Amino acid sequence: MASKHQAAILPQKGGPLSVGERTTPEPGPNEVLIQVKAVALNPVDYYQRDFGIPPVPVYPAVLGCDTSGIVAKLGSQVSGLALGSRVIALASSFFQHGSPDYGAFQQYVLAQADGVIPLPDNLSFEEGAVFPLAVMTALTAWTTVGVPLDTKYSPQDRQAVLIWGGASSVGSFAIQSAKSLGFTVYATASPKHHDYLKTLGAHAVFDYRAPDVVSQIVDAVKKDGVDLHIAHCVVNEALQPTLDVLKETKGNGVAKVAHSPILPPDHPTLDNTEITFNYPPMDPAKRDEHISQCFHGWLQGGLKSGSIVPSPGIQIEAGGLEGLNPALDKLRAGVSGIKIVVPI
């Protein structure tokens, strides 16, 4: 294996990315070196490129979180993976003090073994790349509001959730994961995505632009006779209508909302309702355990059984590392119900 490789490097705040050479790193004891075959793009990638948000602690930086590829080297303590095998990986410098060895946008990347699992033979590298950050964000929302990932409600428990923003990448996995936990799932999305979200496990989907969307959801919940006091706001501008629904459905109990976008200081509130920013545990040991639960537990098990599928649809952009800037520009301009993936 070569001692150098190509990477899309962010030289300073405000971008653009430029392709250059980096030294190929060696994996630590609990790390995997992956030859990258595809990366999926997330809004955080262009926020970091264009605005330095969330803060980029080290320049030059390598961005990116979502990858799939081939195991090139294994750390001494890694088990369950083989050299040359196909994998899905959360490869992000975010929890590694910004070290560019861990950013996905390069030909070889280091990843923590907790966030690396086998890529099933029936999925392409492009399909495999869509999972990592969206799965972790969707699952972290449940633990944020006190729902363990091994929860298994039965229909008799009549537990329901509301997912506002179901057609997004995170929203699609929020639906799949809520279904797997046993919830009756109510979601919002543009009408063109409604049928697709039902195939992922949504019980009912509502047009978030409808002027009476709140009363539509409340009426459906009451008609179905379920208990709705938990919600996940996946997108901006979702908190007020979500609270309007919960006000009518939560009864006398405490309602809980996981909020994935940054919570503005003056955000709306509701009596007897906890609104929490969706974020994994701050303690590194607890976070590693949580990442392992998300990947080695929920995702690997769901892929094996076939109950979890790549979502939403994929839009492949060509150009490899050189194609990342235009692909990020497309994502920033706005997409609906798709995930942009770039083969490397």
Short description:
The chain is an alpha/beta fold and 344 residues long. It contains nine helices and 15 strands.
Describe it for me?
Residues 14-342 form the Enoyl reductase (ER) domain. It comes from Capronia epimyces CBS 606.96. Keywords: Oxidoreductase. One of its GO terms (molecular function) is oxidoreductase activity, acting on NAD(P)H. This protein has 344 residues and is an alpha/beta fold. It folds into two domains: 4-130 and 312-343, Alpha-Beta Complex (Quinone Oxidoreductase, Chain A, domain 1); 136-277, Rossmann fold. Helix content is 29%, strand content 25%. The protein has helices spanning 43-51, 125-128, 132-144, 169-181, 194-200, 213-224, 239-249, 284-305, 324-333, and strands at 4-9, 18-23, 31-40, 66-74, 86-90, 108-112, 116-118, 159-164, 184-189, 204-207, 227-233, 255-259, 273-277, 313-316, 338-343. Strands 3, 4, 5, 6, 7, 14 and 15 form a seven-stranded mixed beta sheet that branches. The chain has a six-stranded parallel beta sheet with strand order 10-9-8-11-12-13, sandwiched between helices. It has a two-stranded antiparallel sheet with strand order 1-2. The model has no long low-confidence stretch (mean pLDDT 96).
